[in-house]
Each structure stands twice: as C-alpha cells, then as structure tokens.
Task: structure prediction
Amino acid sequence: MGIRSPGISIKIPESRFFFNHMSKIPNLLLSDSPPTKTDEAFEKELDRSKNEFNQFNQDLDEIAHSMEKLFEGAPEWLANIEKIKREQDSVEESILATQEKILENENHLEKLKSLQNEVTEDINNDLKKIQEQIFDILEKHRSARSNTSNIYNSQSRTSEQLDLMLQAIHEYARLIREASLTIKHFDDVGSPLKYESLDLSPFRHYKQFLL
Result:
C-alpha cells in the first residue's frame, strides 16, 4: 500500500474507500443469479478502484514524506523565530525608551532655551547699562580734561601775569631808587628844576599789569 513515513502517516482505510465506491454501484452482490456482464463490469470497476486507492495512498505517503523533510528543522526554526521575536520586542522597548528620552531631552532643551533667552536678555540689559556708564565716564573725562586744560591755561596766564607784575615791581623799585637819588641830588645841588619834569612814562607802561 505504499511506503508511509514513520513520522507522519496519512492513509484512508480500504473498507471506507470501498464502501464509498460500492454505494455508487447497483447492489448486484446480493443477487443469487449467475455472474453476468454486469458482474464482470463491477469487478473491473472494483479492480480499478483498488488501483486508484493504492495510488492515492502512495501519493499521500509521498506528501507526508515531503512534509517531514520540510519540517525536519522545525524546532530549531521555531526557536530562531522565538529568538527573533524576543529581539524584536527588545528593540521595540529600546525604541520606546529612546523616544521617551528624546521627548525628555526636548523638554529639557526647551527649558534651556527659555533660560538662555532670559540670561541673554539680562546680559543685554547689563551691557546697555555698562555702555551708558562708559559713555558717562568718557563724558566726565572729556569735561575733566577740558577743565584741566582751562586750569592749565589759566595757570599759564596767571604765571605770565605774575612774571610781568614782578618785572614791573622790580622796574618800579628801580625807578623809585633812581628818582630818590635824583631828588637827593637836586636837593644837594639846589637845582631849580621841578619834580614834575621827571619822565614818568615807565610807570604808565607797567600800570596795566598792576591793575
């Protein structure tokens, strides 16, 4: 009846097969009449059915054998599938954890950006204040420099005026001494000249420095 695979056996019982086929043929076996052409036809049909049955069983055995060959490595293959599935689950968990970490980092980044904007605004305000203070200091420096220049120029003019006044005083003292000597000389010689005839122009020249 064909070689059946030890692992997988697929076979249809002959009794059931014959019953299915015999139900389609007139019930001639129950007749007591001698064999006729119809009986011969039945036997031929029976033989043909047996041959078909045997061939069918052989085909089933070949299919079973092929299926055994196909699933010989099934346990290892299934184990690999389970391993791949576990790895996929692990990868999915890692992806979910990474997504959560990314969202957390994005939120943290938003906070940092907000803080950076606040710090940048504070720094800009401080820089503006410092710039204003620098401008104020520069303005005061210019004013102080101008005042220093004015004071220096004033001191220079004062020094020049003092020098001229000192020269005038010395010249005035010299003229007084000369006038005193002249008057004394006139007194000694009894000159009839008047004191008004003295040349007093030097005194008028230095008078402007004494005011």
Residues 158-210 form one domain.
